[in-house]
Amino acid sequence: MNRKKLIKKMKKNKQIKKAVPAYIQQLTQFRTEFNDYPEIKFLLNHALMADHLLALKQLPQDLPNLQLPDDIQDKIYQKLNQKYPLGDSQGDAEWDQLSNDLPKLDQALLGFRDYLEEQYGMWAYISSAFTNQLAKFLAGKPTLEVMAGNGYISKGLKDHDAKIITTDSLDWQTENETGKHQLVPIEKLSALDAYHKYKDQIDYIIMSWSPDGVPIDNELLEAIRKDGNQVQLIVIGEKNGATNSKEFWKNAEFVKNAEIDALNQYYPHFDLIQDQVYLVK
């Protein structure tokens, strides 16, 4: 084998053996530990499958609410009572282990969004099922995505042949390594610059998870209104919560739309964040 082929093979092997993040190792260990409890295994399998797909640069599936059932400790106790006779030392040890690890498991599941942000730069959880429905809503009309991040929404829309222009200022790349893992080509433009460049070519703008407290969202809304533009603004965020500026939520006029309501049925929630899709004018 010549030197070039050897180096190429070594690089390939290095990529294959890339360390699994400690967080995913932890979830995998919990899945083994709680293998006898389908309610827990169900949640862990969904989280691990989402990570697997994202690592392949594919959109993940929908997620269930990643919260442990309120009665899970009782169910573990009952199962161990069936498995071991009363006072059995092995049963007592297994109970101690599982009951002590339950709070750690709960905390790990609650941290899944943080993991997605840090590992993949995914703030809004965008599933393939959701982008399929979003593409149907757009119905082939040209659309601009601003503040696209790594392009998860645009990736899903492109998979369904939607006409999408993907833009982001990319300023955050200097602070976050995840910005180097774009799923689609992204044009480096601020939200306002992107709007002014493409406003006469589009019917919709998508703005997802605009940063909390940063007024760029309200500035974009005011620019659309000033132009009297008929472009429709689709916003994904948590009203008066984790996303967008106070000014935006105060000034936004929400359009009642049955199709948007239907679209929200496909937008997954897996933790305490209650973001959703809005049509804003």
Description:
- The relative contact order is 0.10.
- This protein has a 6-stranded mixed beta sheet, sandwiched between helices.
- It is built from 12 helices and 6 strands.
- By secondary structure, the chain is α/β, with parallel strands linked by helices.
- It is elongated, with a radius of gyration of 23 Å.
- The model is unreliable at 1-17 (pLDDT under 50).
- The chain is 49% helix and 10% strand.
* Assembly state (oligomeric): single chain
Strand order of the largest sheet: 3-2-1-4-5-6
The biggest sheet amounts to:
6 strands, mixed
Number of strands: 6
**Percent range for helical residues?**
40-55%
Radius of gyration: 23 Å
What structural class do the secondary elements suggest? Answer: alpha/beta
The proportion of strand residues reads 5-15%
Termini distance? Answer: 64 Å
The run of helices and strands is HHHHHHHEHEEHEHEHHE
Low-confidence parts: 1-17
Number of helices: 12
Give the overall shape: elongated
For the residues shown, what is the average pLDDT? 91
